[in-house]
Design goal:
four-stranded mixed sheet, about 140 residues, alpha+beta
């Protein structure tokens, strides 16, 4: 029963952050990127998403904004999907407080002389469940 009540409320609670990701969709599509839905989240990759992640978001391979996962390309998206879905769950729990709390956690790590990304409490949970460091391995070829 909680699933039927909790999930819609989680989507609503995370929606202010999801709107930020959805706002990227026209730029991603107009620049040759792609959009799709997978596991209850919108996934954007390629085009503007790749440029944004490399030039604005510090060179990361993927990031999550509410129920929107933004990735450099499809290969990176497939490599990081499970990790990013941990963040989707965190957005459902923290809602509009997620981004300020994520920033605060990074700041406190930086101030203590620790890595503000890898020691961030939200990243430690996601990497603990689904480590996805470095570049994704080559995907196997599909034989017809």
């Amino acid at each position: 029963m909680i699933r039927y009540v909790g999930y819609p409320l989680g989507y609503l609670w995370a929606s202010p952050n999801s709107v930020l990701g959805i706002a990227m969709m026209p730029l991603v599509l107009l620049s040759g990127g792609k959009a799709r839905f997978q596991w209850g989240a919108m996934e954007l990759y390629g085009g503007f998403a790749a440029w944004f992640l490399r030039n604005i978001a510090g060179g990361c391979g993927a990031m999550t904004l509410g129920h929107v996962i933004v990735a450099r390309d499809r290969k990176m998206l497939n490599f990081t999907r499970n990790h990013e879905h941990v963040h989707v769950g965190q957005y459902m729990l923290w809602g509009p407080l997620f981004l300020p709390m994520y920033g605060l956690s990074s700041f406190l790590c930086w101030r203590a002389g620790r890595n503000p990304y890898l020691e961030n409490r939200f990243e430690k949970v996601a990497y603990g469940l689904y480590p996805c460091f470095g570049e994704p391995p080559d995907e196997p070829e599909v034989k017809a």
